Amino acid sequence: MTDLSHPPLPGALPDKRQVAASFSRAAASYDSVAELQRVVGGELLQRLPQGFTPRRWLDLGCGTGYFSRAMGQAFPASQGLALDIAEGMLNHARPLGGAEHFIAGDAERLPLQDDSCGLIFSSLAVQWCSDFAAVLSEAYRVLQPGGVLAFASLCVGTLDELRESWRAADGMVHVNRFRPFSTYQQLCDSSGLRVLSLERSPHVLHYPDVRSLTHELKALGAHNLNPGRPGGLTGRARIVALVEAYEQFRQSQGLPATYQVVYAVLEKPL
Question: Which residues, by range, are in coiled-coil regions (predicted)?
């Protein structure tokens, strides 16, 4: 979960190898804490055009393959492809099935032929791509005319409670940055794809304490990978300051963590 504004600032984003390694390490623990990911991906599936059935679909950033399996059930007569940059995720997903092929690859440079897919589905993956214009360009190239790109991502405003609490504690970079929603609008509008829908929607999760939230982010592989993050262990005094600052946000349900989710459905013109 990083700031993926376009164009990216030099040194502002984590290296793709770090992202791949982090998610590979998280493969075994990911599904146990992926409540938000399941809710968002399920909502994205519901946003596909009614009656739409692709001959071939691609789960872009498939992770553990949860939605590859869902699409395998939704489109039993279609060929499924699942792609991820993290080999550990692919190794976890492959024996569980859902897709016909599991492919190691980069969303910014897809190893697929032109006009080869009827649907590209990507839930909570493209926020890791520093060049989102390249992701859209590749989607345009790979989609068949009339094909659909459906993606869910994260934008500015995500994890602001945690960000503000860390800022109060020590002022250092502890929380991944996100692309503004306006950038998603601009890049989608100029992609050559027809925007069928594009909106943001907040999803708020609640936790009993700060440790539960930070443990979940680590288990997802989505903990802090930003350049400028503090090195080494975080001192006890800073942790105490973080906890005290975050307590100011407490609600009756617990400590809130807000995710600003971008939902988009785009179509390649005939």
Answer: none
Q: Is 100 helix (H, G, I), strand (E, B) or coil?
A: coil
User: In the chain, what are the domain boundaries?
Assistant: 16-157+177-204+259-267
Cα-Cα end-to-end distance for the chain: 34
Q: Rounded to the nearest 5°, which phi and psi values hold at 198?
A: -155, 115
Distance, CA of 8 to CA of 166 (rounded, Å): 24
Q: Where are the beta strands (DSSP E) in 105-246?
A: 117-123, 143-154, 194-207
Kindly report, residue by residue over 163-203, the tens digit of the pLDDT: 999 888 877 767 778 899 999 999 999 999 999 999 999 99
Q: Considering the entire predicted model, what is its pTM?
A: 0.85
16-157+177-204+259-267 topology per CATH: Rossmann fold (3.40.50)
Residue 245 is encoded by which pair of tokens? 């600052």
Q: Could you report the per-residue pLDDT of 217-261, keeping only the tens digit for each?
A: 877 655 444 444 444 445 788 889 999 999 999 999 999 999 999
Tens digit of each residue's pLDDT (9 = 90 or more) over 62-87:
998 999 999 999 999 999 999 999 89
Under 8 Å between Cβ of 71 and 93? no
C-alpha 49/C-alpha 194 separation (Å) is 13
Map tokens 């024996």 to a residue. Answer: 95
Contact 103, 155 (CB under 8 A): no
Q: Element (H or E) spanning 59, and its range?
A: strand 56-60
Query: Within 10 Å of residue 49's Cβ, how many Cβ atoms?
Result: 13
